[in-house]
């Protein structure tokens, strides 16, 4: 599909669940946090389905089978079938088919989900660099250890193609942020000096596979990370909703580089059921969104309070417009003048 015009926020005068027939929904930080639910996620997604929106859950986590992901979502009050889950493992296997012949040997360093996906794609899974694999497929698994990473490094040093399911440096958990697959891949890269290819977000591969599977022509991407979810939306030409329940904050969105900017902002998944305003520029360089205003002057972000304007999310939208416009015009904006914007669920 063609990318939404421009690099700024989009306006949508009807609820997003009515405007878009398909949503590609991230998991960690959006639908749940580790084993725990995220407030308003279940109701927001169930109501979206009731409004006619189809859902495909698209995750950079390659450690689990689609059936396991679907079971967890169902247990959290979001009824889901395995065919509604697209994992980075499946995208990784699809990427391998672009260069390897059926039956090629692949060293899988990851969980059961990655092994299943690589096998289903027609490859022979091996466990040692001494098996002379043509590729190393690396995905996250909490059980991975030094021995696994060393085996991957040995194979890559001998010429195997290194393919990562994703490059997320961190993984949201109930207790905080843990090292993600990207951190483990970086260890292999540091040992070998070889830069891996990646199938997961921010590559739009998974989004395109999910849209094709659904038989759709457009989709709304929903994510919490600017550098993966929303970057993938931008690179794939899909509108992206940034929900503030995970990794990236409203301040992060204001300071986002063009290739990682969201098209819509929402505190949580209730954002699917409201219209979304876009800021407009007024006199003296001020950007206004439903009474909240912001501008950049001499490289500094300025925010103005107005009577009756209480929505911090609208202030974040105005700040995004002001900073993005200034940056796109070649101006340098002092990041220290961009405050934390405490947007969140209530």
Automatic annotation (TrEMBL):
One of its GO terms (cellular component) is cytoplasm. GO terms for molecular function: phosphatase activity. It comes from the Bacteria. Keywords: Hydrolase. It holds the Pfam family Hydrolase_6. Residues 289-336 form the GCN5-related N-acetyltransferase-like domain. NCBIfam families: HAD-SF-IA-v1 (TIGR01549), HAD-SF-IIA (TIGR01460). This is HAD superfamily hydrolase (TIGR01450 family)/HAD superfamily hydrolase (TIGR01549 family). It comes from Sediminihabitans luteus.
């Amino acid at each position: 599909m063609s990318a939404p015009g421009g690099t700024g926020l989009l306006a949508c005068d009807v609820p997003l669940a009515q405007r878009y027939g398909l949503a590609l929904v991230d998991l960690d930080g959006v639908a749940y946090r580790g084993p725990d639910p995220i407030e308003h996620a279940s109701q927001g997604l169930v109501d979206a389905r009731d409004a006619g929106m189809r859902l495909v859950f698209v995750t950079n986590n390659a450690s689990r089978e689609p059936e396991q992901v679907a079971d967890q979502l169902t247990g959290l009050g979001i009824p889901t079938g395995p065919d509604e889950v697209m994992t980075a493992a499946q995208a990784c296997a699809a990427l391998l088919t672009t260069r390897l012949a059926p039956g090629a040997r692949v060293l899988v360093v990851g969980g059961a989900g990655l092994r299943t996906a690589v096998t289903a794609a027609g490859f022979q899974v091996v466990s040692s660099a001494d098996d002379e694999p043509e590729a190393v497929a690396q995905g996250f698994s909490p059980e991975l250890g030094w021995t696994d990473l060393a085996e991957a490094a040995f194979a890559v040093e001998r010429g195997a193609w290194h393919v990562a399911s994703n490059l997320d440096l961190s993984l949201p958990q109930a207790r905080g942020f843990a090292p993600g697959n990207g951190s483990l891949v970086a260890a292999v890269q540091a040992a070998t000096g070889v830069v891996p290819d990646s199938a997961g977000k921010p590559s739009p591969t998974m989004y395109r596979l999910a849209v094709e599977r659904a038989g759709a022509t457009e989709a709304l991407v929903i994510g919490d990370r600017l550098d993966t979810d929303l970057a993938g939306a931008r690179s794939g030409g899909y509108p992206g909703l940034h929900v503030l329940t995970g990794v990236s904050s409203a301040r992060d969105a204001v300071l986002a580089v063009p290739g990682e900017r969201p098209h819509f902002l929402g505190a949580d998944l209730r954002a699917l059921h409201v219209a979304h305003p876009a800021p407009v520029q007024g006199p003296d360089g001020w950007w206004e969104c439903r009474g909240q205003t912001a501008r950049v002057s001499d490289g500094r972000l300025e925010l103005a309070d107005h009577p009756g304007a209480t929505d911090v999310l609208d202030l974040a939208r105005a700040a995004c417009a002001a900073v993005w416009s200034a940056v796109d015009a070649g101006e340098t904006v002092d990041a220290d003048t961009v405050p934390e914007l405490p947007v969140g669920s209530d």
